[in-house]
Predict the 3D structure of the following.
Amino acid sequence: MNRLSVIGLLGWLPYSWASPAAHFARAPTSGVPTPPLSSAPVVIVPTSIPHTSFSGTPSVTGAVNASSVGSGIPSLGLSPAATTYPSDGSLHDAEPAPYVPAGGLGTNGTTPVYNAKSDFDFESLSLALYQEYVELDLFHYGLARFSVQDFQAAGLSAEDRFLIEFMANQELGHATMLTNILGAAAPRQCTYNYPFTTVQEFIDFSQKITRIGESGVYGFISHLDSREAAILLTQSITTEARQQMIFRQFEGLFPMPVWFEVGVPQSWAWTLLSPYISSCPDNQTRLAWQNFPALRILNQPNPARAGKSVGNAAITNSTITNSTTFGLNETISSGTNTLNSTVAANSSCVNSTSMGGSCHPAITHNRTTPLSWPGRQVWLSWETPGRPVGPNNSYITATTAGSPRYVAWASQLNVTYSALTLSNSTSGYTIQPNLETYAGDPAINGTVFIAITDTDLFVTPFNISLLNPHVVAGPGLYQAG
Ligand SMILES: *[C@@H]1O[C@H](CO)[C@@H](O)[C@H](O)[C@H]1NC(C)=O
Ligand SMILES: *[C@@H]1O[C@H](CO)[C@@H](O)[C@H](O)[C@H]1NC(C)=O
Ligand SMILES: *[C@@H]1O[C@H](CO)[C@@H](O)[C@H](O)[C@H]1NC(C)=O
Ligand SMILES: *[C@@H]1O[C@H](CO)[C@@H](O)[C@H](O)[C@H]1NC(C)=O
Ligand SMILES: *[C@@H]1O[C@H](CO)[C@@H](O)[C@H](O)[C@H]1NC(C)=O
Ligand SMILES: *[C@@H]1O[C@H](CO)[C@@H](O)[C@H](O)[C@H]1NC(C)=O
Ligand SMILES: *[C@@H]1O[C@H](CO)[C@@H](O)[C@H](O)[C@H]1NC(C)=O
Ligand SMILES: *[C@@H]1O[C@H](CO)[C@@H](O)[C@H](O)[C@H]1NC(C)=O
Ligand SMILES: *[C@@H]1O[C@H](CO)[C@@H](O)[C@H](O)[C@H]1NC(C)=O
Ligand SMILES: *[C@@H]1O[C@H](CO)[C@@H](O)[C@H](O)[C@H]1NC(C)=O
Ligand SMILES: *[C@@H]1O[C@H](CO)[C@@H](O)[C@H](O)[C@H]1NC(C)=O
Ligand SMILES: *[C@@H]1O[C@H](CO)[C@@H](O)[C@H](O)[C@H]1NC(C)=O
């Protein structure tokens, strides 16, 4: 195998691999003559790793930071050039070639170089790689963990299991691509620990993890300095988007209940992802992103439950402790707030055949009784900062926000806020807001991101990360539909 086929796209890379074989599988070298290989080998990952929590002591703690750290991003207002293009349908500049309108980035003929071009790029792409490795491990692990009978009881067939296996292999490709872009310091595969104990919980967890992966990338992809990295990442994240929808279908949910998929900041994705990473190799490249305190949705809608999820507007401060009546804590983890599938058999919708009430795996289901609705009381509790979290318990949750006052709802093109009524300093409730993204498209549906904030700052999809200094806790994933 020649060097170029080892490093694929990256024949130009400025460093040398001490031992390419240590990182990349070799293509088959023996057997009958085959056509010349054009395929690039993929990253090597251990096939069997333990899935337990980390019990050691971290050798380093905290996010990486630079030698100089500023005090915040200023609000600069409009850039003067932002509105000068006339947008009148005429051509305003000479065309560089026939049929080629002037403008664009990376369109002038320079050779593309598929690397990171800034700290922002390296940290964002590394986060995406941590995510791909979680998914690679998660999909394989789910298949290995549960029996054929377990999958069948959840309505999933051998063909469905093959689709999960295929999705795991897609992650091998995504991890390879990102490793090639990042080079020798690319983060490696870690060990993981997941909260699920049933197939339905595994499917819901996977649906939520792929939502984090997809939305986490949308949040930064248009900000990358490396336009070259951005196109490859687009080509992988569109695949991830399909995975997210397939897990929704496996869960018996309406496959795509929104018109737009939300993008969220890197620190939101890292906050949600990192608790499931138990330990990483000693010299693992660390990340610069923030871990916010964890957010728990006490009456998270439960897609495995028939009919209206319990936990509605009748909850009061005194009944919030009554889990029988209100279906409280039907989750197995804060953050992702993954469902607990242990509901009474007559409350499970997995074998239901009723129109509008079934959550048996399917291309689509009407859930005619929605999982949530505007006006629903949503009860929340959250941690205080300073807790160790993530790989080797080596990151520390932090916030720079003031007192909790709002719940931010990030969904589709919108970030909107609802007032928070505190029960005590780390818990309270809010009312699910009522808004449409465009007429006919209720904004809050599917898996949405909610966070506790100290203010109702106006942000839009391109500057949503300006909210980070105001996040008290979260995000948590709210299963609106
Ligand atoms: C930067 O990291 C060092 C070492 O973890 C820590 O002591 C310091 O407080 C950090 N500085 C900032 C501004 O986060
Ligand atoms: C071509 O575009 C790249 C950025 O996309 C820029 O760095 C370079 O200077 C441009 N080259 C010329 C000749 O304009
Ligand atoms: C659903 O039906 C399958 C058999 O097809 C069974 O194994 C499973 O226990 C049932 N689940 C529930 C919650 O009734
Ligand atoms: C970590 O150490 C291993 C073994 O020495 C080496 O192969 C790998 O490249 C190192 N990783 C990083 C990110 O430096
Ligand atoms: C979500 O969308 C589905 C499909 O249109 C709809 O049935 C459901 O009522 C919606 N849920 C909410 C909370 O708007
Ligand atoms: C819960 O208690 C808080 C503080 O005592 C109070 O402001 C709020 O109105 C109460 N909420 C409900 C639903 O009773
Ligand atoms: C729900 O979970 C929270 C956080 O773990 C806990 O404080 C609360 O007591 C639980 N409530 C019930 C009704 O189990
Ligand atoms: C919870 O609510 C149910 C139904 O309203 C009631 O029967 C039960 O006594 C309540 N439990 C507690 C501990 O308040
Ligand atoms: C799910 O809920 C059941 C019943 O409350 C409980 O026994 C089980 O431990 C929960 N599962 C997880 C993974 O927390
Ligand atoms: C599915 O839901 C839509 C929107 O509520 C409704 O118009 C349609 O009649 C439903 N279809 C069936 C078969 O229930
Ligand atoms: C606040 O209320 C939550 C939910 O009832 C509870 O889990 C938590 O222990 C309380 N915190 C304090 C500081 O009282
Ligand atoms: C939601 O986003 C759309 C599209 O940007 C915008 O028109 C609408 O005003 C937003 N709604 C709210 C409540 O922010």
Notes: The CA atoms of residues 136 and 171 lie 5 Å apart. The chain has nine helices and twelve strands.
